């Protein structure tokens, strides 16, 4: 870096489930730090990705989706989203353009809920209209106008997080908004999640990719053991917890095929991320009511009493 003063701060990425928040964080960081699957509500806690741009370091807080909570876990996820937003230096509200243009449905309701939440908390946000590659320009302009007139946005960016279209302009705006400050993380650090938790997220992502049609959200992955080996490799043992006996055979698959696929793909990604060999061992256990256990919330960094 030059003599230019360094800048650093936090940018909270909020929005409805599956609006593209995690995809945007991964695009801005330049590497995957957050789970991305076809299922909504897959981000369960605030994952911090670190973006560098010139003399600025932007810590991107990828929050859980803001949606109508039905379970204790849902309430904790939504509370975590607003905690991340209220403590950030700047907020980015990601909106799924195709879903919003349908004019009805859960996605529209969730966007309205975010707008009301911003008003309630007296917060302003940057509006990032996402998935513009799937929508005609005229419709985008009208959507932008309608949302901007709600009065909660300072700027509007039309982006496609999946292919990186126009995300560069958003990245610069975030960097410019950071206050003067020493950097908060080392230059080569891209996320502040412990390796054990990141490893669990990788496996959870592969599970959702493989069985997202059959399995509900009632699963979690915990890294039970992380042992450094003399040859420089690492032995990782993880447990997949499901809530019902009927979920276990879905995870394992016929002749163990599904679990082998998940383990192989998770291992490959972990080896690429860690830069060394990984010996990954997966176990599946039934744990009824795990999503209502205080200890599970603490492990996810979520508040239990909300």
UniProtKB/TrEMBL annotation:
GTP binds at residues 15-22, 62-66, 130-133. Residues 211-288 form the KH type-2 domain. The keyword GTP-binding applies. It is a peripheral membrane protein. It is found in: Cytoplasm; Cell membrane. One of its GO terms (biological process) is ribosomal small subunit assembly. One of its GO terms (molecular function) is small ribosomal subunit rRNA binding. The keyword Membrane applies. Pfam families: KH_2 (PF07650), MMR_HSR1 (PF01926). It comes from the Bacteria. Keywords: Cell membrane, Cytoplasm, GTP-binding, Membrane, Nucleotide-binding, Ribosome biogenesis, RNA-binding, rRNA-binding. Residues 41-45 are annotated as: G2. Residues 62-65 are annotated as: G3. Residues 7-180 form the Era-type G domain. Residues 130-133 are annotated as: G4. GO terms for cellular component: cytosol; plasma membrane. Residues 159-161 are annotated as: G5. Its main location: cytoplasm. Belongs to the TRAFAC class TrmE-Era-EngA-EngB-Septin-like GTPase superfamily. Era GTPase family. Monomer. An essential GTPase that binds both GDP and GTP, with rapid nucleotide exchange. Plays a role in 16S rRNA processing and 30S ribosomal subunit biogenesis and possibly also in cell cycle regulation and energy metabolism. This is GTPase Era.
